[in-house]
C-alpha cells in the first residue's frame, strides 16, 4: 500500500518514491514530488482556477505518454473540479487549487497544461501566448531573437510580454489580456505571427508545415484557441532530463548565445525563485492586463 502523507489536513497517497523516472540523471519520483512541494508557492497561482490537462508519463519520458483531460478515476472528492464545454459535449476537468491537490496530481507523474482562460469565465481569454518552436538547426537562441521582436511589437500595442523556457527546446511568450474571446486573441496572435514572418523572413515561419520549418522559428499562435492548452509555468517536462518550464528575464533573453544556457532543471529553480521571485507574477494582476487593439 502506498504511504499516506497528510498535506494541509488532507490525506494524500504518495507511491513508488524510489522509482527512477529520468534514467540519464537518476532523478526519482520522490525528487519530482519534492520539487513540486517546494515550487508550489510560485506554481499554484498559475494553475489556480484553470482547467488542467495532465500529460502523464508514469514510467518516465521513455515510457508511455498520454493526455488526461477528464477527471481521472480515483480522484479524491476534495479535489475541485469544473464542467468545461467541448465540441463533443460538456466534460469535467480538475482544478488544482491548493497544495494537497497539487501533490495528489504530481503523484500521477504529469506535466501540467492549462488553457488561456479561467473556469469561471471560459468565454473571455485572460492570456495571450506564443509558442516559439525552433526547427533544427535553429535553437532557442533564434527563438530569443524572435521573442525580442515580438516583445517590441506587442509593446507598441500596449501589451507587456513575459518569457519562459518551454522546458523543451523552445520559448514561450505570455501576456495578460482582457475583454476578448479566445477567437479574437487567436486572430490577433496570428496577425502578429504573419507580421513577424514578413519582418524576419529568414528567421520566422507562421505555418506549421514541416517542410517550411528547418532553420526557422515556428511562431505558433494557435495555442490561443479555447480548446488548446500550453505547458504551465514551473511544470517539469517529460524530456530526457527533468527540465522545467522556467521564467526568464528579458536580459537573459537578450544575452542568450547557447541553447544549453536555457535548460533549467528542477534543482535549478529554487535558487532562481529565491533571487528573483516569480518573474511571471505580473500576469496574475488583472490591473496589468491589456485590451487588444481594435
Radius of gyration over all CA atoms, rounded:
19 Å
Major β-sheet profile: 7 strands, mixed
Number of E strands: 17
Uncertain stretches of 5 or more adjacent residues: none
Tell me, rounded to a whole number, the average pLDDT: 96
Number of helices: 6
Secondary-structure class: alpha+beta
Shape descriptor reads globular
What order do the helices and strands follow? EEEEHEEEEHEEHEEHEEEEHHE
| Beta-strand percent range | 15-25%
Query: What is the terminal-to-terminal distance?
Result: 58 Å
Q: Work out the helicity level.
A: 25-40%
Please render the helix and strand layout as text.
Blueprint: E1 4-7, E2 10-13, E3 20-22, E4 27-28, H1 29-47, E5 51-56, E6 66-68, E7 81-84, E8 91-95, H2 99-107, E9 110-114, E10 125-134, H3 140-156, E11 161-165, E12 171-180, H4 182-199, E13 204-205, E14 217-220, E15 230-231, E16 247-248, H5 250-255, H6 266-276, E17 290-291
Parallel strand pairs: 12-17, 13-14
Antiparallel strand pairs: 1-2, 3-4, 5-6, 5-8, 5-9, 7-8, 9-15, 10-12, 10-14, 11-12, 11-16
3D architecture notes:
With 294 residues, the protein is α+β, with helices and mostly antiparallel strands. Helix content is 27%, strand content 25%. The protein is built from six helices and 17 strands. The protein has helices at 29-47, 99-107, 140-156, 182-199, 250-255, 266-276; strands at residues 4-7, 10-13, 20-22, 27-28, 51-56, 66-68, 81-84, 91-95, 110-114, 125-134, 161-165, 171-180, 204-205, 217-220, 230-231, 247-248, 290-291. The strands form four sheets. Strands 10, 11, 12, 13, 14, 16 and 17 form a seven-stranded mixed sheet that branches. Strands 5, 6, 7, 8, 9 and 15 form a six-stranded antiparallel sheet that branches. β1 and β2 (10-13) form a beta hairpin. α1 (29-47) packs across α2 (99-107) and α1 crosses α6. The longest helix is centred in the first third of the chain and has 19 residues, at 29-47. The chain is globular and about 60 Å long. It starts with a strand and ends with a strand. The mean pLDDT is 96.
Amino acid at each position: 500500500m502506498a504511504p499516506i502523507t497528510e498535506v494541509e489536513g488532507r490525506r494524500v497517497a504518495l507511491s513508488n518514491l524510489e522509482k527512477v523516472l529520468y534514467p540519464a540523471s537518476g532523478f526519482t519520483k520522490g525528487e519530482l514530488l519534492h520539487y513540486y512541494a517546494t515550487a508550489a508557492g510560485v506554481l499554484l497561482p498559475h494553475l489556480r482556477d484553470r482547467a488542467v490537462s495532465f500529460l502523464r508519463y508514469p514510467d518516465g519520458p521513455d515510457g508511455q505518454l498520454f493526455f488526461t483531460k477528464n477527471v481521472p478515476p480515483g480522484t479524491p472528492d476534495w479535489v475541485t473540479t469544473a464542467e468545461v464545454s467541448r465540441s463533443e459535449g460538456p466534460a469535467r476537468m480538475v482544478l488544482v487549487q491548493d497544495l494537497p491537490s497539487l501533490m495528489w496530481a504530481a503523484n500521477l507523474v504529469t506535466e501540467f497544461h492549462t488553457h488561456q482562460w479561467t473556469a469561471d469565465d471560459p468565454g473571455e481569454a485572460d492570456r495571450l501566448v506564443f509558442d516559439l518552436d525552433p526547427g533544427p538547426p535553429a535553437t532557442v537562441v533564434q527563438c530569443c531573437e524572435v521573442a525580442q521582436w515580438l516583445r517590441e511589437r506587442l509593446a507598441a500595442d500596449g501589451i507587456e510580454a513575459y518569457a519562459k523556457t518551454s522546458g523543451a527546446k523552445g520559448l514561450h511568450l505570455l501576456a495578460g489580456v482582457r475583454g476578448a474571446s479566445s477567437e479574437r486573441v487567436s486572430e490577433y496572435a496570428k496577425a502578429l505571427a504573419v507580421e513577424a514572418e514578413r519582418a524576419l523572413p529568414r528567421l520566422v515561419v507562421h505555418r506549421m508545415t514541416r517542410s517550411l520549418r528547418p532553420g526557422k522559428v515556428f511562431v505558433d499562435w494557435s495555442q490561443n484557441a479555447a480548446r488548446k492548452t500550453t505547458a504551465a509555468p514551473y511544470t517539469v517536462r517529460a524530456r530526457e532530463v527533468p527540465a522545467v518550464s522556467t521564467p526568464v528575464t528579458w536580459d537573459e533573453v537578450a544575452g542568450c548565445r547557447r541553447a544549453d544556457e536555457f535548460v533549467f532543471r528542477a534543482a535549478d529553480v529554487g535558487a532562481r525563485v529565491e533571487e528573483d521571485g516569480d518573474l511571471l507574477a505580473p500576469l496574475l494582476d488583472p490591473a496589468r492586463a491589456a485590451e487588444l487593439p481594435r
